[in-house]
Amino acid sequence: MTTxxxxxxxxxxxxxxxxxxxxxxQHAGTYELVANITERAMRGELDFAASLAARVDxxxxxxxxxxxxxxxAVTFSPGAREFIAECxxxxxxxxxxxxxxxxxxxxLAHEVGITRFRANHLDVVANRLTGRTTGTIxxxxxxxxxxxxxxxxxxxxxxxxxxxxxxxxxxxMIHAAGIGIAYNAKPxxxxxxxxxxxxxxISALDVIDNHPK
Length: 213
Known about the structure:
Layout: E1 6-9, H1 11-15, H2 20-28, H3 31-42, H4 48-57, H5 65-73, H6 80-89, E2 93-101, H7 102-111, E3 116-125, E4 128-134, H8 140-154, E5 161-165, H9 171-176, E6 179-183, H10 187-192, E7 195-197, H11 204-210
Protein name: phosphoserine phosphatase
Family: Belongs to the HAD-like hydrolase superfamily. SerB family.
Keywords: Amino-acid biosynthesis, Hydrolase, Magnesium, Metal-binding, Serine biosynthesis
């Protein structure tokens, strides 16, 4: 019998090659500051929620029209489209969980036919970012929660789930999944994840197909 799987992917530096918050920061003139905080957070040196608040605070005043420019600037990671298409061809469910922003993630999900996603929401007043987020913060713990909730909704056992990410904030979902994969990941993630790949995301299929039943 063919296994129906749930594949949950991180977005920034996993599904796509960039960190969206850094692209937005270019429009705010705060790129170097934000990139430094992002790097430290992804290495696990900073609390994610606190680091997110500090980075988003620097984006205050950015016009929403600049978010469209950011959407146009992002590029999918090598093999990402092909990997998702093959998962969908096999009848697997693919979802996105992102410490990034719904305003960008929704667009990316739509482009590759994904309907389940969770990300942070940027607060906007008078068409400009306020420097705050609204709603639940998608941090390390909430990524794992999302994986478990998606699996429960779909009736897919946790043993048949896959989680793919690159940062320290992906480690809980990588450990919780039946198959946890680090992709182009920070050293701490490569060290702790059951599997680690780089280059094309399509190689994740080899990991999944060869994972002991």
